Amino acid sequence: xxxxxxxxxxxxxADSRFACRVMTGVSDAKDGAGPxxxxxxxxxxxxxxxxxxxxxxxxxxxxxxxITMIESNAPKHFGTGQEIVGRILPHSGRALRVGxxxxxxxxxxxxxxxxxxxxxxxxxxxxxxxxxxSSSVSRGSILGDKTRMEKLARxxxxxxxxxxxxxxxxxxxxxxxxxLLLCEAAGYDVVLVETVGVGQGxxxxxxxxxxxLVIVLTGAGDDLQGIKKGVIELADAILVxxxxxxxxxxxxxxxxxxxxxxHYLRPATxxxxxxxxxxxSVTGEGIENIWRVVLEFRDRxxxxxxxxxxxxxxxxxxxxxxxDEHIRNRMARNPMVVARxxxxxxxxxxxxxxxxxxxKILIDTVDEAxxxxxx
Length: 375
Hints:
Layout: E1 4-5, E2 22-23, H1 48-57, H2 60-71, H3 75-88, E3 96-101, H4 108-121, E4 126-132, H5 150-153, E5 158-164, H6 174-185, E6 190-194, E7 211-216, H7 229-232, E8 237-240, H8 248-262, E9 275-278, H9 287-304, H10 306-333, H11 335-349, H12 355-371
Parallel strand pairs: 3-6, 3-7, 4-5, 4-6, 7-8, 8-9
Antiparallel strand pairs: 1-2
């Protein structure tokens, strides 16, 4: 087998759960070069059984590969990905799901690292789904959130999965939901979903989590941003971050202002009053308190039945979302629609027809394809 070496940042007691090993390369190796060899074509192909067994064992390498499979846009991977999800579904649903959003610079990643380390220290297994903004050129991640959670990344009970948003609002798609299910099946009992935070589209995360936390800051021109009703009305808690040093007093004033605003808004969850809190992700002050709020929310909502009702409604919304996505994909691949679309795009660019007329023609084309059973 090709020799591996441990990078200098690898902990001394690291075992197979630590995913930082570097292959030095394989000399004189060819595809299918016998037992013990690493194929030049990449890692060994896994069957659906391999994926399911590995995920249920909590094998982080196989979990990562399973997530890559369901994130793939290649048609050949769709069936395998869906079979994996179907097989692990009975083993999911046991984690507490927390959505975390906020404008860029609010300190979401720093807060998640502080909270994640606290929870790991208490015996929890924490999965972080960090959705990065996608480059409009390469479609890859821009921020690389995992690199900004260096301490949490070293925790044996933590799993961090950064994923490019692919241009979707908030970065939350069917694939984000399926990734969450895989993490739950792998034994992670707390799943933190960090959204892109570049606009009100990040409210999509509300449809896949139990508790929705909006992180804001003060002293950086963010005060007005945080008052956007589209986000605040969906929050189960508001957290004023960076309440330390010279900014602490202003953070406390901002917390009081948010509490006053929340007094006039309808609660996001029946039977729960949303409040504002303050914390410092650097000093750790207030981190434990916000976790107590999350636990209190879970306990009260389970007793009232709101918790399970919300999850059932989210499952239905997920079905609708997948149907919409499937229809869009069918439209994008249908030969009649593709051929007509090219002509329509040329006429719109030339201002021969209006966008409304163009949309009508494409809709009629879809109807025609369906009548001919070619859709």
